[in-house]
Request: fold
Amino acid sequence: MMDRERTPLTTEVPESSQVGGLQIHAIRPLKLRSLVGPVLRHPSVWIEGLRSARRMAPNGWWKHSPFLPIPSASYWHFRMVTVFGADGSGRLDDQQVIGFLKWSRRMGRGSS
Reply:
């Protein structure tokens, strides 16, 4: 399992850093808005969006600024590598975000 240590999401977070020899890119506020926007436009995935946010949030997220359940940079990088391969330097579009949430909802119900 990936290390889910807390990396705060503020403008002070470096654009990237080295973790275990990998270049890790922090989730910037603009990227966070690009994930939340599609979810807000599709009420059918709101509940699954909240569930996914809860699953990806580091333990004790409420104890650290910015007090939001935002995954650490290293965990986010791991998730992007699983989507795009190589160095994980792709960009999620609205369809991928909504598609993931619908897939996640189906998997939670035990059907594919």
The helical segments are 29-40, 46-56, 73-84, 94-108. The CA atoms of residues 52 and 101 lie 8 Å apart.
